[in-house]
Amino acid sequence: MAFQLPYCLCFLLTLLQMPFHTTSQTYNNISLGSALTAQDDNSSWLSPSGEFAFGFQKIGNDGGFILAIWFNKIPERSIVWSANGNNLVQKGSTVELTADGQFMLNDIANGTQMFIAEQAAATGVAYAAMLDSGNFVLANRNSINLWESFNHPTDTILPTQTLNRNSTLYGSYTKTNYSKGRFLFTLESKGILALYTANFPFESPNFRYWATQTEGVGFQVIFNESGYIYLTDINGSLLSMVSNKEVSMHDYYQRATLDFDGVLRHYIYPKSNGSSVGKGTRNWSTVSFKPPNICTAISEKIGGGACGFNSLCKHEDEGQIICQCPQNYTYIDTNDERKGCKQNFVPQNCDETSPETHHFGFQEMLYTDWPNGDYEHFLKVNEDFCRQSCLSDCFCAVAVFDKATGGCLKKGIPLSNGRIDKGVGWISLIKVRIDNSTYRQEVPRARKKENSALILVGSVLMIIISYLIVSLITYLFASHIYSKQAKVSKLYPVVHSINLKCFTYMELKEATNKFKEELGRGAFATVFKGVLASDNGRSVAVKRLDSMVRENDLEFKAEVSAIGRTNHRNLVQLLGFCNEGQHRILVYEFMTNGSLASFLFGESMPSWDQRREISLGTARGLLYLHEECSSQIIHCDIKPQNILLDDSFTARIADFGVAKLLQTDQTRTTTRFRGTKGYMAPEWFKSSPVTVKVDVYSFGILLLEIICCRKHYEPKIEDEDQMILADWAYACYKKKTLHLLLENDNGEEIGDIKMMEKYAMIAFWCIQEDPSLRPTMKNVTQMLEGTIEVSVPPNPSSLYVNQSDRSYY
After folding, report:
1. Which whole number is the average pLDDT over 428-456?
2. What are the CA-CA distances from residue 632 to residues 400, 586, 624, 682, 797 (Å)?
3. What is the pLDDT of residues 765-794, one digit of tens each?
């Protein structure tokens, strides 16, 4: 044995260092002017041995055609490369190698052309060939390959094929849909070979769930003729094995495919029934796969995992997974189980006057877990407490109870990264509605027929009753509107101790010249400039909420209530409102210098002194909202568009439309999704209760924008490292190159680089992912004023900076 082990290792390394045979391949040349037409008989060009084919293959009985390369001598005709997976073409479409060397796909349905190898034609293409290796090539008269399908892989690599840095395989969307899907396999530019979830429907990588430890040294992936798949450095030395099963190309067809489920599998298929590996079975079998268990490998804090939201991933043999729904949940799309699951019952409402707790119960599930998305955690409690806590909480969809520790975790919709794992020792309590009448299910057809007569009679009666009710409501509504319009302006107490002017709709219509001059537009409202003739021609900003939207009525009441109680020089003053019929209108003082966004991102940059004053003013306004007004207010939408500037360029916080008020004995609140992408704190995406620290986070992003006079996200910038301002700014801070952030300034700011560095450090503290690490706005204000020192901030490392999730912006 002392001799055999080194001998085997030496033999293995010898095989790895000699990846390819040097025997030449026979070419069946495809001459210029040749073409194929998409027909039902799968027209194709064959390799010399007939083992591979290039051409059109029909997808499904009623589907289109894909231009592809496939194994031609097996019944499945498994596809290994495709040109148009995202856009199938119709019958009659053609692929053509033109007389001038262009290789193009012509879609007959819309008359479009796709150049498959656009740059190769300019270098003298003389012919094409389908090789026995599975590689389709375009070559010149000297038989030098100008283009190869091996250099442009889709989801599969074959023996003798290599992957270089920046090469990527994209898993298909489903088993029969060859569009780019939810996973990718790539050799990164920095040498790491990795599997990623894709930022679907985009193609950018999102979360890495398997990787080699080869940063800086990984150079090439080789799939050699002995069946080994491995990563080498630039000198050809072995770094990491991907598949170490020796399989003969003479006996087996082989492929390594990133499947639609996110697993990279090395497949073999016996060329004859006498093959030794695979026991002579005539189908594809798996010899190795990565990762070992994708259900547990994907552990990202955002995203649906391997099976989508609200689902459960179960790991089977050969890396196969089964996607299941919890009890009383159903697939969103039965044709695509990986889209996730939905509740098949009406969820619990959050009306405290009728909590519906008696309509809900629990289904117990063993060995299940959704490791992310906890929004509340109790320790040393019993199961009854855990059940009751979830039952009385309308946000709770699942309670997980650990009998060993007395731990209780509450999770809300959507549930992410669900998996079935025998190693899980706790109980999952799935909250379900026990009243069958409110389940989301269709009435059986037989029952429909039995009740058809009753339904007809009932329908006639309902029409008559509905007509009478509508007539009565119309009369009452018209009378109400008439009485409203007859009222004149007066001081109207909206809430206790608040007196604001109540305008009629006609007054504001006249003041705005029929709402002519638009100042801005938001998701639920439009702002117009107006002039109050009754107030000596005073200019005002008139915010008209969109009509007939229930959410706007809540927003209107929130804004009147919140702003009506406030009084601070850094807040926009509310002068009055209109609550007439369907009209919900707010009247503010007019800010002559517009929004901070137009000032920061316009042609002329504000001076450094102006930037400091605006930063400090905004901080003081937030401090007032958080700690100094009668009811603590979370603004929830701090951004440059919501900071207005008066005639002296004083910062004034506006738009309390999404404000969340807290009572004096509250420090946290759970609320629906609010705010603007890019400025929203990570806790919004974790189903976690939010606090005033979400405003601190938004202020940190805003502060960086004020310092640099640029937007937090610039997708069109040439240097990708500079796209996300927070990411770039922190990198400059660590490298002591903060002056790079001010390259477009006039020099004044660079002269005060120490002050600029301090402001950047404050911003980094504000955008910490952990809310507890962020300072309060009182601390922020003191740091900006210079009354307390600013310590060295840790890396903000927010969830979307770490994961390059640029879809967030």
Report:
1. 60
2. 33, 22, 9, 21, 29
3. 999 988 989 999 999 999 999 989 999 998
- What DSSP element (H or E) covers 573? none
Mean pLDDT (whole number) for 520-538: 84
The pLDDT value given to residue 678: 80
Residues 6+ apart with CB under 8 A from 526: 515, 518, 520, 543, 544, 546
- If you write DSSP's letter for every residue of 183-226 in order, what string do you get? EEEEE-TTS-EEEEEE-TTS-SEEEEEEE-S-TTT--EEEE-TT
Tokens of 519: 């100042």
- Which residue did the predictor score with more confidence, 403 or 473? 403
230-252 in b/e form (b: 16+ CB < 10 A) is bbbeeeeeebbebbebebebebb
In Å, how far from its chain's centre is CA 234? 36
Residue position matching structure tokens 């012509």:
106
Residue 562's φ and ψ, nearest 5 degrees, are -70, -55
342's enclosing H/E stretch is strand 341-343
- Burial label for 470, CB within 10 Å (0-12, 13-18, 19+), is exposed
Confidence of residue 521 (pLDDT cuts 50, 70, 90): confident
pLDDT in tens, 34-89: 999 998 766 899 999 999 999 999 988 777 899 999 999 999 899 999 999 988 99
Interacting residues of 371 by C-beta distance below 8 A, sequence separation 6+: 299, 417, 419
List the catalytic residue out of 637, 695, 727, 805: 637
Does residue 637 carry a catalytic annotation?
yes
CA distance 658 to 166: 43
Give CA–CA dist 696/702, Å, rounded. Answer: 10
Fold match flag (16-151 vs 153-291): yes
Residue 445 clears pLDDT 80, i.e. is over it: no
Cβ atoms of residues 119 and 126 within 8 Å: no
- Predicted pLDDT of residue 200: 74
Q: What is the pLDDT of residue 455?
A: 56
The arrangement of secondary structure in 596-808, i.e. its CATH architecture, is Orthogonal Bundle (1.10)
Q: For the domain made up of 153-291, give the CATH fold.
A: Agglutinin, subunit A (2.90.10)
pTM: 0.55
Query: Which top CATH class is 490-589?
Result: alpha beta
CATH of 16-151 among 1.20.120.140, 2.90.10.10, 2.60.40.10, 3.40.50.720: 2.90.10.10
Annotated binding-site positions for ATP: 543
Amino acid sitting at position 267: Y
Q: Which residues are annotated as a binding site?
A: 543
For the domain spanning 321-438, the CATH number is 3.50.4.10
Q: Is the pLDDT of residue 561 over 70?
A: no
Task: Establish whether the linkage from the previous residue to 414 is cis, with ω within 30° of 0.
Answer: yes
Q: What residue spans define the domains of the chain? A: 16-151, 153-291, 321-438, 447-485, 490-589, 596-808
CA–CA separation, 296 and 313 (whole Å): 9
- Measured CA to CA, the distance from residue 501 to residue 71 in angstroms comes to 78
580 touches 505 (CB < 8 A): yes
| Predicted confidence (pLDDT) per residue in 82-135, tens digit | 999 988 999 999 999 999 899 999 998 888 888 787 766 667 899 999 999 999
Q: What's the CA gap between 144 and 153, in Å, rounded?
A: 20
Length of the chain: 809
CA 396/CA 417 separation, integer angstroms:
17
